[in-house]
Protein backbone atom coordinates (compact mmCIF):
# COMPACT_ATOMS: atom_id res chain seq x y z
CA UNK A 1 0.00 0.00 0.00
CA UNK A 2 2.85 2.43 0.79
CA UNK A 3 4.29 1.97 -2.70
CA UNK A 4 0.90 2.58 -4.31
CA UNK A 5 -0.04 5.73 -2.40
CA UNK A 6 3.47 7.20 -2.67
CA UNK A 7 2.80 7.63 -6.38
CA UNK A 8 0.28 10.31 -5.43
CA UNK A 9 1.81 13.80 -5.13
CA UNK A 10 5.41 12.59 -5.61
CA UNK A 11 8.01 15.23 -4.84
CA UNK A 12 5.43 17.90 -4.02
CA UNK A 13 5.80 17.75 -0.25
CA UNK A 14 8.90 18.21 1.85
CA UNK A 15 8.43 15.74 4.69
CA UNK A 16 10.42 15.96 7.93
CA UNK A 17 12.72 12.98 8.29
CA UNK A 18 12.91 10.87 11.43
CA UNK A 19 14.79 7.82 12.60
CA UNK A 20 13.29 4.34 12.56
CA UNK A 21 12.31 4.82 16.20
CA UNK A 22 9.41 6.98 15.00
CA UNK A 23 7.73 3.93 13.44
CA UNK A 24 7.13 2.51 16.92
CA UNK A 25 4.26 4.97 17.27
CA UNK A 26 2.60 3.68 14.10
CA UNK A 27 3.11 0.09 15.26
CA UNK A 28 1.51 0.88 18.62
CA UNK A 29 -1.49 2.34 16.80
CA UNK A 30 -1.79 -0.70 14.56
CA UNK A 31 -1.79 -3.11 17.50
CA UNK A 32 -4.34 -1.10 19.49
CA UNK A 33 -6.89 -0.88 16.68
CA UNK A 34 -7.78 -4.60 16.77
CA UNK A 35 -8.79 -4.78 20.47
CA UNK A 36 -10.43 -1.35 20.27
CA UNK A 37 -12.71 -2.41 17.41
CA UNK A 38 -13.51 -5.72 19.09
CA UNK A 39 -14.62 -4.02 22.31
CA UNK A 40 -16.23 -0.94 20.76
CA UNK A 41 -18.43 -3.01 18.45
CA UNK A 42 -19.93 -4.81 21.48
CA UNK A 43 -20.88 -1.76 23.51
CA UNK A 44 -21.30 1.21 21.19
CA UNK A 45 -23.58 2.15 18.34
CA UNK A 46 -20.74 3.65 16.30
CA UNK A 47 -17.05 4.43 16.68
CA UNK A 48 -14.60 6.84 15.12
CA UNK A 49 -10.90 7.32 14.46
CA UNK A 50 -9.64 10.85 15.16
CA UNK A 51 -6.19 12.15 14.15
CA UNK A 52 -5.29 15.65 15.32
CA UNK A 53 -1.98 15.99 13.43
CA UNK A 54 -2.56 13.72 10.46
CA UNK A 55 0.24 14.62 8.04
CA UNK A 56 0.30 13.63 4.38
CA UNK A 57 -0.29 9.92 4.86
CA UNK A 58 3.39 9.01 4.63
CA UNK A 59 6.21 9.15 7.18
CA UNK A 60 9.84 9.46 6.11
CA UNK A 61 12.34 7.52 8.21
CA UNK A 62 15.99 7.33 7.13
CA UNK A 63 15.01 8.29 3.55
CA UNK A 64 12.40 5.52 3.33
CA UNK A 65 8.65 6.21 3.23
CA UNK A 66 6.21 4.33 5.46
CA UNK A 67 2.47 4.59 6.07
CA UNK A 68 1.50 7.47 8.36
CA UNK A 69 -1.09 7.17 11.10
CA UNK A 70 -4.24 7.80 8.98
CA UNK A 71 -3.23 5.09 6.50
CA UNK A 72 -2.30 2.74 9.35
CA UNK A 73 -5.79 3.25 10.79
CA UNK A 74 -7.46 2.56 7.45
CA UNK A 75 -5.34 -0.49 6.61
CA UNK A 76 -5.77 -1.99 10.12
CA UNK A 77 -9.56 -1.80 10.09
CA UNK A 78 -11.22 -5.20 10.46
CA UNK A 79 -13.40 -6.39 7.55
CA UNK A 80 -16.43 -7.00 9.79
CA UNK A 81 -15.85 -4.20 12.32
CA UNK A 82 -15.13 -0.87 10.71
CA UNK A 83 -14.81 2.69 11.92
CA UNK A 84 -17.88 4.71 11.04
CA UNK A 85 -15.69 7.66 10.17
CA UNK A 86 -12.07 8.77 10.07
CA UNK A 87 -11.68 12.41 11.16
CA UNK A 88 -8.32 14.01 10.40
CA UNK A 89 -6.83 17.46 10.91
CA UNK A 90 -3.91 18.75 8.87
CA UNK A 91 -3.05 22.45 8.94
CA UNK A 92 -0.67 22.31 5.96
CA UNK A 93 -2.73 22.51 2.76
CA UNK A 94 -0.30 20.53 0.58
CA UNK A 95 -0.17 17.71 3.08
CA UNK A 96 -3.94 17.78 3.46
CA UNK A 97 -4.41 17.48 -0.31
CA UNK A 98 -1.92 14.63 -0.51
CA UNK A 99 -3.63 12.82 2.36
CA UNK A 100 -6.99 13.10 0.60
CA UNK A 101 -5.62 11.38 -2.50
CA UNK A 102 -3.62 8.76 -0.63
CA UNK A 103 -6.31 7.89 1.90
CA UNK A 104 -8.92 7.58 -0.85
CA UNK A 105 -6.86 4.85 -2.49
CA UNK A 106 -6.37 3.04 0.84
CA UNK A 107 -10.06 3.32 1.73
CA UNK A 108 -11.09 1.87 -1.60
CA UNK A 109 -8.60 -0.99 -1.25
CA UNK A 110 -9.80 -1.87 2.27
CA UNK A 111 -13.47 -1.20 1.50
CA UNK A 112 -14.03 1.41 4.17
CA UNK A 113 -15.14 5.03 4.22
CA UNK A 114 -12.89 7.85 3.03
CA UNK A 115 -11.65 10.10 5.84
CA UNK A 116 -13.04 13.55 6.42
CA UNK A 117 -9.90 15.67 6.31
CA UNK A 118 -9.97 19.23 7.57
CA UNK A 119 -7.38 21.82 6.59
CA UNK A 120 -7.66 23.33 10.06
CA UNK A 121 -5.78 23.81 13.30
CA UNK A 122 -7.23 21.22 15.66
CA UNK A 123 -6.81 23.67 18.54
CA UNK A 124 -9.32 25.98 16.88
CA UNK A 125 -11.79 23.61 15.18
CA UNK A 126 -11.88 20.38 17.18
CA UNK A 127 -14.97 21.07 19.28
CA UNK A 128 -17.12 22.18 16.34
CA UNK A 129 -16.10 19.26 14.14
CA UNK A 130 -16.63 16.72 16.91
CA UNK A 131 -20.15 17.99 17.47
CA UNK A 132 -20.95 17.84 13.76
CA UNK A 133 -19.28 14.60 12.70
CA UNK A 134 -18.69 12.60 15.88
CA UNK A 135 -21.69 12.89 18.23
CA UNK A 136 -20.96 11.70 21.76
CA UNK A 137 -24.24 9.89 22.49
CA UNK A 138 -23.69 6.10 22.39
CA UNK A 139 -20.49 6.55 20.41
CA UNK A 140 -16.79 6.24 21.18
CA UNK A 141 -13.50 7.07 19.49
CA UNK A 142 -9.87 6.11 19.15
CA UNK A 143 -7.71 9.23 18.89
CA UNK A 144 -4.10 9.49 17.79
CA UNK A 145 -2.23 12.66 18.80
CA UNK A 146 1.31 13.10 17.50
CA UNK A 147 2.31 16.79 17.36
CA UNK A 148 5.65 17.67 15.79
CA UNK A 149 6.44 19.93 18.76
CA UNK A 150 4.42 21.55 21.52
CA UNK A 151 1.57 22.42 19.16
CA UNK A 152 -1.15 20.74 21.20
CA UNK A 153 -3.01 22.88 23.75
CA UNK A 154 -4.36 21.41 26.96
CA UNK A 155 -7.77 22.93 26.28
CA UNK A 156 -7.90 20.93 23.03
CA UNK A 157 -7.06 17.66 24.75
CA UNK A 158 -9.58 18.50 27.45
CA UNK A 159 -12.35 18.94 24.86
CA UNK A 160 -11.54 15.51 23.49
CA UNK A 161 -11.44 13.92 26.95
CA UNK A 162 -14.91 15.16 27.85
CA UNK A 163 -16.41 14.24 24.47
CA UNK A 164 -18.03 10.91 25.19
CA UNK A 165 -15.87 7.83 25.73
CA UNK A 166 -12.68 7.02 23.94
CA UNK A 167 -9.10 5.82 23.99
CA UNK A 168 -6.23 8.17 23.23
CA UNK A 169 -2.69 7.52 22.05
CA UNK A 170 -0.76 10.69 22.81
CA UNK A 171 2.93 11.10 22.08
CA UNK A 172 4.32 13.32 24.82
CA UNK A 173 6.95 15.58 23.16
CA UNK A 174 9.70 15.14 25.74
CA UNK A 175 12.51 16.42 23.51
CA UNK A 176 10.47 19.41 22.32
CA UNK A 177 9.68 20.44 25.89
CA UNK A 178 13.30 20.14 27.00
CA UNK A 179 14.42 22.11 23.94
CA UNK A 180 11.99 24.96 24.64
CA UNK A 181 11.88 25.00 28.43
CA UNK A 182 14.52 27.71 28.85
CA UNK A 183 13.49 29.91 25.94
CA UNK A 184 11.50 32.97 27.01
CA UNK A 185 9.27 33.18 23.95
CA UNK A 186 8.27 29.51 24.40
CA UNK A 187 6.79 30.03 27.86
CA UNK A 188 3.32 30.85 26.52
CA UNK A 189 3.30 27.77 24.28
CA UNK A 190 4.37 25.53 27.16
CA UNK A 191 1.74 27.04 29.44
CA UNK A 192 -0.88 26.39 26.75
CA UNK A 193 0.40 22.81 26.41
CA UNK A 194 0.18 22.04 30.13
CA UNK A 195 -2.89 24.18 30.79
CA UNK A 196 -1.26 26.35 33.46
CA UNK A 197 2.18 27.53 34.54
CA UNK A 198 2.81 24.71 37.02
CA UNK A 199 5.36 23.26 34.61
CA UNK A 200 7.72 26.11 35.56
CA UNK A 201 8.29 24.50 38.96
CA UNK A 202 9.26 21.11 37.55
CA UNK A 203 12.66 20.03 36.21
CA UNK A 204 12.09 19.43 32.48
CA UNK A 205 14.90 16.86 32.39
CA UNK A 206 13.11 14.59 34.89
CA UNK A 207 10.11 12.29 34.62
CA UNK A 208 8.09 14.64 36.82
CA UNK A 209 6.66 16.57 33.88
CA UNK A 210 5.31 13.37 32.38
CA UNK A 211 3.81 12.33 35.72
CA UNK A 212 2.27 15.79 36.10
CA UNK A 213 0.66 15.56 32.65
CA UNK A 214 -0.58 12.03 33.30
CA UNK A 215 -2.11 13.13 36.58
CA UNK A 216 -4.05 15.83 34.78
CA UNK A 217 -5.39 13.29 32.28
CA UNK A 218 -6.26 10.96 35.18
CA UNK A 219 -8.89 13.49 36.17
CA UNK A 220 -10.82 12.28 33.11
CA UNK A 221 -9.71 8.66 32.67
CA UNK A 222 -9.47 5.75 35.11
CA UNK A 223 -6.48 4.22 33.34
CA UNK A 224 -3.52 6.30 32.16
CA UNK A 225 -0.31 4.52 31.19
CA UNK A 226 2.93 5.41 29.45
CA UNK A 227 5.42 3.65 27.22
CA UNK A 228 8.90 5.05 26.54
CA UNK A 229 9.91 5.49 22.90
CA UNK A 230 13.68 5.44 22.40
CA UNK A 231 16.03 5.80 19.45
CA UNK A 232 18.73 3.41 18.31
CA UNK A 233 21.04 4.71 21.07
CA UNK A 234 18.36 4.22 23.74
CA UNK A 235 17.74 7.96 24.07
CA UNK A 236 14.14 8.72 24.96
CA UNK A 237 12.20 10.92 22.57
CA UNK A 238 8.54 10.70 23.47
CA UNK A 239 6.17 9.00 25.88
Tell me what the structure shows.
The protein is an alpha/beta fold and 239 residues long. It is built from 9 helices and 10 strands. It has helices at 2-5, 23-43, 69-75, 93-109, 122-133, 154-161, 174-180, 187-194, 208-217; strands at residues 17-18, 46-51, 58-61, 64-67, 85-89, 116-118, 139-145, 165-170, 229-230, 236-238. Strands 6-5-2-7-8 form a 5-stranded parallel beta sheet, covered by helices on one side. It has a 3-stranded mixed beta sheet with strand order 1-3-4. A two-stranded antiparallel sheet has the order 9-10. A hairpin with a 2-residue loop joins strand 3 (58-61) and strand 4.
**CATH level 1 name:** Alpha Beta
Overall spatial form: globular
Helix content: 25-40%
Q: What percentage of amino acids are in beta strands?
A: 15-25%
| Helix and strand sequence | HEHEEEHEHEHEHEHHHEE
User: How many H/I helical runs?
Assistant: 9
Strands, helices and their partners?
Blueprint: H1 2-5, E1 17-18, H2 23-43, E2 46-51, E3 58-61, E4 64-67, H3 69-75, E5 85-89, H4 93-109, E6 116-118, H5 122-133, E7 139-145, H6 154-161, E8 165-170, H7 174-180, H8 187-194, H9 208-217, E9 229-230, E10 236-238
Parallel strand pairs: 1-3, 2-5, 2-7, 5-6, 7-8
Antiparallel strand pairs: 3-4, 9-10
Summed up:
With 239 residues, the chain is α/β, with parallel strands linked by helices. The protein has 9 helices and 10 strands.
Supply the key terms.
globular; 239 residues; alpha/beta; 39% helix; Rossmann fold; three-stranded mixed sheet
Amino acid sequence: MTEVVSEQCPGQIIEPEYGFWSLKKEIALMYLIWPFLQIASKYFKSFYYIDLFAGSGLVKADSVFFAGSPLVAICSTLPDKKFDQFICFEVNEDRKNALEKRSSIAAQRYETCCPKIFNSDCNQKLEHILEEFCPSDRNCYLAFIDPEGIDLKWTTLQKLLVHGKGDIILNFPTSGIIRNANIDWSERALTDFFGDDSWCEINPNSDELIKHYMNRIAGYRKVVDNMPVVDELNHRFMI
